[in-house]
Amino acid sequence: MRLIVESGQKNRSCTLLPELSVPEYRMEASLLRGQELHLPEVSETEISRHYTALAGRVHGVNNGFYPLGSCTMKYNPKINDEIAAMEGFSNIHPLQPEYTAEGCLEVLKEAEEILTEITGMDAMTFQPAAGAHGEFTGLLLMHAYHTARKDSGRTKILVPDSAHGTNPASAAMVGYTIINIPSTEHGLVDLTALKAALGNDTAGLMLTNPNTLGLFDTNILEITRLVHEAGGLNYYDGANLNAVIGRARPGDMGFDIVHLNLHKTFSTPHGGGGPGSGPVGCKKNLANYLPGNRVARDGENHYLLQQEESVGRVKMFEGNFLIVLRALTYLLTLGKEGMADISGNAVLNANYMMKRLEDTFEVAYPGVCMHEFVLTLEKLKEETGVSALDMAKGIQEYGIHPPTMYFPNIVHEALMLEPTETESKETIDRAVDIMLQLYDKAQNEPERLKEAPINQPVRRLDEVTAARKPILKHSDEEHCETCVE
Amino acid sequence: MAELKFTKTHEWVKYTEDGKAKVGLTEYAQQQLGDLVFINLPEEGDCVTVEDTFCDVESVKAVSDVYSPLTGTIARVNEDLLDAPELINEHPYEAWIAEIEDITETAEFLSEDEYETFIKSEA
Amino acid sequence: MGSYILNTERDKREMLLEIGISSVDELFGEIPAEILLKRELEIPAGRSELEVKKRMQKIAAKNHVFPTILRGAGAYSHYIPSIVKSVTSKEEFVTAYTPYQAEMSQGLLQAIFEYQTMICELTGMDASNASVYDGATAAAEAIAMCRDKKRHRVLVSEGVHPQVIEVIRTYLTGVEDTLVLIPCKEGATDMDALKEEIGDTTACVLIQQPNFYGIIEPADEIGEIVHQTKAEYIMHCNPIAMGLLKTPGECKADIAVGEGQPLGLPLSYGGPYLGFMAATEKMMRKLPGRIAGQTTDIEGKRAFVLTLQAREQHIRREKASSNICSNQALCALTAAVYMSAMGPSGMKQTASLCMSNAHYFANELCNLKGFRMEHKKEYFHEFVTICPDAAKVLEVLEEEDILGGLMLDDHRILWCVTEMTAKEELDRVVDILRTYQGHEE
């Protein structure tokens, strides 16, 4: 397919803007760009068709099943987008006088009140734009807490080996040293190793519960108690909150800081990789360190409160407001009765899917799972040569987005599946039937799976050349010989 | 290859006449790493210490540290690898990464035979 | 109450039977009894879609939408072409995840590749990433790209947006680098102060173009000073101004970053926006976040894929220079559609309209009694006036449904004029102030 810069004609354009109504101001030539500006010269017709064609080459939740483990690809309700498009929200300047943005402040305050109740926290900031950004913010809170107590020797963050790669990367950004805590054979935190690692140099622990293996850590109260006794704080990575929402709260598990992914648990669209929102909640003793302004309530009215002890801003203005607005719309729709239904159905769907697969595929950690589970294709690969990657590519041919591959790192040939609560039994049954067929195919026609996918716009890609000799932008010299109209 | 010395972390060392030494990755290492796509070279003048990481190599979906088999100073780096990291895959014993001088300490070296035995035992 | 769950009671019974248990609650048996929530959450009860919509409309009505906006300071009111909204509401783009599975995400990957191409064109740089959270975090990430164990001083001009400086400061928590602010003189970065502070331990120098006060910085001269040392040069730019101004590439910047919101994104009370980041080829592999690259499939057909992933946190973990693992893909798509709709002529026309309208308005304002420009330097679409009572001026305008400039202190107002306000509207603003002054006398 052509690139948009390869479409159009010289001097073709859309007519969008009026003529000048004031005298033209000309800047002196030395300040102006000498370089020609090569942007597409296209009509609105061409733009519309180009992007319609591109959209046809993307698989979203609206196209079909998307059991991408750890990403909670649930349905994104349309009312959320409709509310976010309302001019009364979308056309508000972030530096408007507060009393002219009362509605925005009310949205932030109400979202804070609901989400702190759901997580068992006391205060929340909406500045962080994503989960990783929330982690960074949470670690800044830890840093501020220990610094305020003049407890400067706390330089280590403990992270289980099943954690998302972002956890150690976020801790490193704040200058912490990372100590990896191994998992037991049952996939839970190894308490002996945890005890050995704890000390007066421990700043805190970062934990996802249920963890990335889809297992709820039954020792959670002991884990958080041990960390507290050592003088550290407990950080809850909310990536997997969908599993326990409405049934258990991080605050009651002993966590001091929580980040949420509004784009996972709270149904805001992923947008192909963003924008998301990663609010951070914390207990009362940390609230003064939250970044940016806080929203305060005075009777019916709201105002922004500057925080003296804040760790500082992590983003301009008050965060990804329209994403928070979408999440609030979802929360108000589902309400208190709806929360436990989310986790109940997410966990039911996952266990049902796992049950139907487990006689054929090998489950990495058998037993009851939470909202997701991990298969290991290690034996299948030894027997047939078909890897987790091949299986994933085979699944694509049926219009289903493959599960997460090769994660968590501690499971070999991993496929991680998270069906979410917004899928039906029929959809899950169909996906299971397809995976069982593919398992047979792996035994009988392994070479066919190595060729997959054959019905997508492109076949498998040469990723080595892409990384060795990166082409990151279009160059005019290149002629589109290989592209298909 | 008799002039090469090997480490248990899969680097090779070749001393040159002027007391300097070239360092690279072994055939076994490059096979394990797969197609290399980039190398983060150290800088000339950097001090390196035995068994500390001094550079890393990237494949498409992995990154691996390279440990220094020597304590000393980086005299030169092989800038050809910046444009063509695949040289390590193609000719691992010619594609040196860095040349180290002012050597004060070395890792525990293995001979070629010892190294062969070692990698067999690892597998 | 609303719900998006498909399972019926019958489905649930069948599924529980297959699993071999009798109730959903049994699945939560691993959660210790002490922490199982035994009460209902204290949050509002669920509502129907109709009720929620009415409630949200009521909340939206508590906001005031200003038909005339003369305030910028980091968030800019520009015309958003209809085609932009139509393309970016396509559900495939909206509801997809990060394009890990390249074969089934070619449309998204190509859209990102096109965005990168356009950002490189606009900034005159070699390589762009797929965007980061916003302009401020882009600046902070750019500084992290320049981290060097022998260079610890980060020089930032005071002409940079105060909130951007705040974010930079936050990002330096726990890191060895020291932030040094270079003061402004007559509205632009003080070159003497810069020469004084820069040296062998300087990791990088960051300026904003045009700066917070709207002034056009001597970016090429600053570039020369920076490159006399071996420091890196970062320019934080307004993308609309880039249609006209000398590019970061031409000013020898090593990294160009900026707030992409003016490229077709609504004000949205501050977000979501996008931070664009582009660099020279030399620094390409230090760019954080997602990057789409061109390659071929096994049949030789052109295709796109996320590339240079070994830089990223999911592989490097604690050794990654950034923890970012997303991009503002939908916002980047918005920016790309906006730039396509505008084309080279539209981008230049927008910049020219902004600049000409701003200069017209500044002249008219300064014809009012007591108003004068604070600086004499060349500016783009923002400028600072001095007047006797800034608060009163803004109040008078607000009563007439006009969001005036941003009050910097009792006497200084930072105005912004874009293509959205033409002569007639600007004249009305000045007339309102003139009438007010008349009444005062």
Q: Average the pLDDT over all residues of chain B and give the rounded result.
A: 91
Radius of gyration of chain A using CA atoms only: 25 Å
Examine the secondary-structure arrangement and name the CATH architecture of chain B. Answer: Beta Barrel
> What composes the largest sheet of chain B?
6 strands, antiparallel
Q: Major sheet of chain A, described briefly?
A: 7 strands, mixed
Strand content of chain B: 35-45%
CATH level-four homologous superfamily name of the largest domain in chain A: Type I PLP-dependent aspartate aminotransferase-like (Major domain)
**Oligomeric state of the chains in view:** heterotrimer
Structural class of chain B: alpha+beta
> What order do the strands of the largest sheet of chain B run in, or round the barrel if closed?
1-2-3-9-8-5
**Average pLDDT, all residues of chain A:** 95
SSE order of chain B, one letter for each helix or strand: EEEHEEEEEHHEH
Low-pLDDT runs of 5+ residues of chain B are none
Question: How many beta-strand segments of chain B?
Answer: 9
* Spatial shape of chain B: globular
Order of helices and strands of chain A: HHHHEHEHEHEHEEEEEHEEHHEEHHH
How large is the count of helical segments of chain B? 4
Helix content of chain A: 25-40%
Number of domains of chain A: 2
The structural domain count of chain B equals 1
If interface size is counted as residues with C-beta under 8 Å from the partner's C-beta, which chains form the largest one?
A-C, 200 and 204 residues
